[in-house]
Amino acid sequence: MDCRMKRKSLIHKTLVQFMICTAVIFALMTPAFYMLTKHFYAEDLIDVIRAVKRGQAIPQLDLERDIMVGVMIQFVLTFVLLSIALFITVRYITRRLWRPFDDTLRDAERFNLAQSDVPEFSPTDITEFSRLNETLGKLMRKNKETYTIQKEFTENASHELQTPLAVTRSKLDLLMQEELSQSQLELVEELYRLNTRMGRLNRNLLLLAKIENAQYGDRKRIALTPFIEKLLPSYNLLKGNCSVVMINETDVTINANPVLLESMVNNFVVNAIRHTESGEILIHVTKSALEISNPAEDKPLNPDEIFRRFHSADTQSGGTGLGLPIVKAICDFHGWQISYRHIAHRHHFTVIF
User: Fold this and answer.
1) What SS3 class is residue 274?
2) Per the confidence metrics, is the pTM higher than 0.70?
3) Whole-angstrom Cα distance, residue 232 to residue 244?
4) 37-65 pLDDT per residue, tens
5) For residue 213, how many other CB atoms are within 10 A of its CB?
């Protein structure tokens, strides 16, 4: 941006434009004022002069009435002209003055923290808009730097944690092959479960970070019913005393990232299996939504809390407290709506495409 550009305030430029517009309109209406003055002021004098030249009696004049009428007409005409000037200034000229603000707003709305560079705002000679552009530019660059640092930290931390977790698991495997007492064996098994949970937690946190950083950009047209049917066999080893039943009302095709869609369905079903001792877990596909429900053996969940991270972490069942937050992040990424209801002793989670 050219720092030597002479800047003026918005109110200054608006007043200048209003004054110019008013002057132009009054200049164009000068003939009307001339005709008005001639009709109400000069006409009586002309009649007197004509009467004198012709030797006739001087006509009786009502100057007070003519002056009052002329002043009122001039006042109304001036008011109308000022109103027209104000209307033109507000409707058309101000729109041109605010164009830099609209350009800045459009560039800011298009800005994507994960995919876009910081926009170069259009230069403007209006002080307020120039300061706005400078402030927004600084804020966007700072957020971009913070986002990059956070992204790199998350990826590096997750990568670095994988190695010690894998080494710990291998050491525990070797330790379990030794002759151990019952108490030692239980202790090793507990450490093994904790290690497995930490590994799952690490993967889920990395997945959440990638979703929030918009690193899953590829989307495809996916037939939802066949896609879910391919996943059903993998749930047989997990379902225990409950059954997973799919209800398909219609064939629906959605635009989604296949990896994230699979993760969403898996988190839904695994979460339902983990909290269901027996009964049916229903996967219901409609024209515009996917609904998954399971028996509710406890009280209804809090819709304002269940999608928060670690809100429902259950160490006994092996949960990390990130299943539903991952589902929520995937829905937000695709622009889908997710809701929870408790109906007839069942938990219902609905995703509207």
Assistant:
1) helix
2) no
3) 8
4) 666 666 666 666 777 777 776 666 665 66
5) 17
Quick: pLDDT tens for 242-257: 788 888 877 889 999 8
For residue 174, pLDDT over 90 is answered with no
- Structure tokens belonging to residue 39: 């009709």
Q: 123 is written with which tokens?
A: 């230069």
Cβ–Cβ under 8 Å, residues 256 and 228: no
Q: Residue 327 is encoded by which pair of tokens?
A: 């589902």
Topology, domain 220-352? Heat Shock Protein 90 (3.30.565)
Q: What is the dihedral of CA 237, 243, 244, 245, to 10 degrees?
A: 150
Domain range annotation of the chain: 220-352
Please tell me the distance from the alpha carbon of residue 346 to that of residue 269, in angstroms, as a whole number.
Answer: 14
H runs (alpha helix) in the chain:
10-28, 30-37, 43-54, 63-88, 94-97, 99-110, 127-176, 182-212, 224-231, 258-274, 323-334
Task: Enter the tokens of residue 288.
Answer: 């515009």
Integer-rounded Cα radius of gyration of the chain: 38
Res 1 pLDDT > 50: no
Q: What angle do CA 323, 154, 308 make, to 5 degrees?
A: 30
